[in-house]
User: Which sequence fits this backbone?
């Protein structure tokens, strides 16, 4: 590629500098990222799209190496060591992580992108503060900081702020998702938390402004970094597990915006374009998640559902009917269409393979099986899809809210496996319910509904599910994996 | 034109492009899209490489650059590999 460019260069009357060529290669990489992302949004082309985007990354990195290769060898050796450490760790983790650990992995990756952008911004600032260069024995102290424009300084502050909060925010999300003992899955909230967040946020933006006014005030940047790290913890610790899909998508967006800000710092178009692309895609995903919960982003970030709504809306009355495995399998055996509704409970029990075997058992009896996937089922966007794909369920069988809802009326059995709030009919009619207005899967419209659940404990929103008390609903109590396996065995025995 | 103005134009246009290209993504692909775009945001590795290169090697700024390269490479390699692993699993009925 470069050779080709160099060959044509001689015939051009335009005199392009090394930096210009680098800019053009970065543009080429950015086009590959764009094409890669476009292909990633279709199932048939997604895998190739990922490779196209990886190629773009390779081109960008190679070109950068080409640019800096004229420098001191010591520096380059350390860079290679850094790449080996980071790349090696990334490769090992990426190959080893089980599909059930994917939410944690994505959180970790987001965090690394964020801290890298913070370090780039701060490192560049320090590189600018003072350089002692020795040329032919003459030592000169060069300070290019004073010549840095207001925009570069502001971007340095913002890249540090966004990068830092992405880092600690992602680490808290990681801890919550991994079920750490130190950080609970439930929202952690204390008096004055919102005020503190507001003060830290506005304070750090103001400090970025101070940096513009006093470029050599390095301590200001350290303050911004420290505040951003605290801010990330405070922002995410107050959010509960069921709202994690929104948080993960938002952190993804932040990691992109932080990279774009680092691009402003370095006056580097590759970082700006790519960071903006990722920032935009993350925001769209965040928006889809918010819509799926009928809540505004502000409400997710600061509303703190869970603790606050206990007692809101009156609970449903009546008695839930428990079904035995035998009784349930008789009804399943007689069904013609079954819709399986997986939720976080399936992920926790790691029941995806058992579910696949179960659906094969049904299909062998020429029962039509589909899966209804709510956008916020699980702990990250697309969580259920990944788990079921791992178990070899063809993606055509996975249907989203709009596709599947009209089909529940014609469906004989809806089998809810570890999903709760996304199936609560109260969201349609009970204006007092905290989940009122949230788009739900209309499982209650199926002829028979079976709910596999460990106990009658309420779901994440802290409310009892009306569905469990309906006449056509039967509860099968137990661990999702165990119950589904037993159902398969019972069906096979008949 | 001031580089800042040019950069801002690029930034805004790229956001518009990002919104355009992602709007119609099926929910099946939400996770790979996220991890894949996350790998792309590891582009900050370019900045890290530039920041970690300096004539005065032991400057503290270069140390930060070194760490930035470690984290950014983790982000890039981990992101692409994990996305590829997931996409490998997405099979249709026919491709089995």
Assistant:
């Amino acid at each position: 590629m470069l050779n080709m460019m160099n060959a044509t260069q001689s015939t051009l009357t335009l005199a392009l500098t090394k930096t210009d060529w680098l800019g053009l290669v970065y543009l080429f990489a950015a086009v590959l990222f764009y094409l890669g992302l476009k292909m990633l949004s279709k199932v048939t082309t997604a895998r190739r799209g990922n490779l196209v985007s990886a190629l773009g990354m390779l081109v960008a990195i190679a070109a950068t190496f080409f640019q800096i290769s004229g420098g001191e060898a010591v520096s380059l050796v350390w860079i290679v060591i850094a790449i080996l450490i980071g790349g090696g760790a990334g490769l090992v983790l990426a190959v080893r992580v089980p599909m059930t650990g994917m939410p944690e992995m994505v959180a970790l990756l987001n965090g690394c992108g964020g801290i890298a952008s913070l370090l780039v911004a701060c490192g560049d600032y320090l590189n600018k503060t003072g350089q002692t260069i020795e040329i032919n024995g003459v030592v000169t102290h060069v300070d290019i900081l004073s010549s840095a424009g207001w925009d570069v300084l502001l971007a340095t502050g913002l890249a540090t702020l966004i990068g830092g909060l992405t880092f600690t925010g992602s680490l808290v999300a990681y801890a919550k998702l991994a079920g750490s003992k130190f950080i609970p899955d439930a929202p952690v909230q204390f008096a004055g938390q919102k005020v503190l967040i507001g003060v830290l946020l506005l304070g750090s933006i103001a400090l970025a402004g101070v940096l513009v006014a006093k470029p050599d005030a390095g301590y200001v940047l350290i303050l911004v970094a420290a505040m951003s790290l605290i801010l990330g913890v405070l922002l995410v610790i107050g959010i509960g597990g069921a709202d994690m899909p929104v948080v993960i998508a938002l952190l993804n967006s932040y990691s992109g915006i932080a990279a774009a800000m680092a691009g402003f710092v370095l006056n580097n178009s590759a970082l700006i374009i790519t960071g903006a692309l990722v920032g935009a895609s993350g925001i769209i995903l965040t928006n889809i998640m918010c819509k799926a919960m009928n809540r505004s982003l502000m409400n997710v970030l600061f509303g703190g559902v869970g603790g606050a709504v206990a007692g809101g809306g009156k609970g449903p009355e009546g008695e839930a009917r428990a079904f035995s495995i035998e009784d349930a399998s008789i009804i399943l055996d007689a069904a013609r269409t079954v819709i399986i509704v997986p939720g976080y409970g399936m992920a926790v029990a790691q029941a995806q393979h058992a579910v696949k075997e179960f659906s094969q058992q049904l299909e062998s009896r020429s029962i039509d099986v589909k899966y209804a996937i709510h956008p916020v089922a699980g702990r990250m966007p697309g969580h259920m899809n990944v788990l079921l794909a791992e178990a070899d369920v063809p993606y055509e069988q996975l249907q989203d809210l709009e596709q599947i809802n009209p089909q529940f009326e014609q469906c004989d059995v809806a089998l809810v496996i570890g999903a709760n709030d996304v199936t609560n009919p109260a969201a349609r009619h009970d204006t007092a319910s905290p989940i009122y207005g949230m788009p739900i899967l209309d499982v209650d419209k199926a002829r028979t509904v079976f709910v596999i659940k460990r106990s009658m404990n309420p779901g994440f929103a802290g409310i009892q599910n009306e569905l469990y008390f309906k006449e056509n609903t039967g509860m099968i109590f137990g661990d999702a994996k165990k119950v589904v396996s037993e159902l398969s065995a019972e069906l096979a025995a008949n | 034109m001031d580089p800042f103005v040019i950069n801002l134009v690029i930034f805004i246009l790229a956001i518009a492009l990002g919104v355009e290209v992602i709007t119609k993504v099926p929910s099946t692909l939400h996770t790979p899209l996220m991890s894949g775009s996350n790998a792309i945001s590891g582009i900050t590795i370019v900045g890290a490489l530039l920041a970690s290169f300096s004539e005065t090697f032991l400057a503290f700024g270069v140390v930060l650059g070194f760490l930035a390269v470690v984290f950014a490479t983790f982000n890039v390699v981990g992101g692409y590999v994990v996305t590829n692993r997931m996409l490998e699993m997405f099979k249709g009925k026919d491709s089995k």
